[in-house]
Specification:
This protein is mainly α. The protein has a domain of about 35 residues. Helix content is about 55%, strand content about 0%. It contains 3 helices and no strands. Helix 1 packs across helix 3. The two termini are about 15 Å apart.
Amino acid sequence: MSKVKIPKVSQSKTIERVRENERPVKANITFRVSSELLRRFDKVCNKAKVKKVDVIEDLLKQFIDGNK
């Protein structure tokens, strides 16, 4: 089995894409992450004035599109 290549993530490019994109119809998803990771994620998103859900969606797209 070949190893999956995980794309590198650029914080500034992700924030830029999130600010430029329109928000499509959404579905629900629930998962848990460490409280420290969530605290740091909240801090970055609040500072950049972007919604966490939009950043997560962008990261998921990068992950999927980078592995085609």
